[in-house]
Amino acid sequence: MTLHGTAVMDGDQVEVRLTPRSEGTAAVADATVRLRWSVALADEQALPARCVREDERAVLCGTGALAVDAAGEQLRLPVRLRERAPEVTLEVSTVWSSGGPDADRSNDRAEVLVLATGDPYAF
């Protein structure tokens, strides 16, 4: 599974748009991705239904089903940081995947530096 998307930071708000894609030879019934920030998130968050807080810096989100060699549904995840920061590092990784084994785990992780410019940063 590959993970592609963008992250935009404006003030203490970060919006991530993530599209998972199955690159394997078998469909994936569901998978879980972890989004971890280099700074703490605010205590109160309005997370999408398929996401849950893991700890003070991370959120886990389900991807839903992924067909063979196809993109899944885009996940839009807005979060608030505990404090404003000039930049944050966002790590995105697959932590669980149903279905067949993934022969190439190197594409299950992405890291992006997001500056507080309001511009989208791609991963």
Q: What would you say this structure looks like, in words?
A:
With 123 residues, this protein is mainly β. It contains no helices and 9 strands. The protein has strands at residues 2-10, 13-21, 31-37, 51-53, 58-62, 75-80, 87-97, 109-115, 120-122. The strands form 2 sheets. A 5-stranded antiparallel sheet has the order 4-5-3-7-8, with no helix packed on it. The protein has a 4-stranded antiparallel sheet with strand order 6-2-1-9, with no helix packed on it.
Q: Main traits of this protein?
A:
four-stranded antiparallel beta sheet, 9 strands, mainly beta, 123 residues, 49% strand, five-stranded antiparallel beta sheet
What's the alpha carbon Rg, rounded to whole Å?
14 Å
Q: Which ranges are low-confidence, i.e. pLDDT below 50, for 5 or more consecutive residues?
A: none
Q: Helix content range of the residues, please?
A: under 10%
- Give the mean pLDDT: 92
The end-to-end distance, rounded to whole angstroms, is 14 Å
Strand order of the largest sheet: 4-5-3-7-8
Shape: globular
Strand content: over 45%
The sequence of SSEs as H and E is EEEEEEEEE
Helical element count? 0
How would you characterize the largest beta sheet?
5 strands, antiparallel
Helices and strands, with pairings:
Layout: E1 2-10, E2 13-21, E3 31-37, E4 51-53, E5 58-62, E6 75-80, E7 87-97, E8 109-115, E9 120-122
Antiparallel strand pairs: 1-2, 1-9, 2-6, 3-5, 3-7, 4-5, 7-8
In short:
By secondary structure, this protein is mostly beta strands. The protein has strands at residues 2-10, 13-21, 31-37, 51-53, 58-62, 75-80, 87-97, 109-115, 120-122.
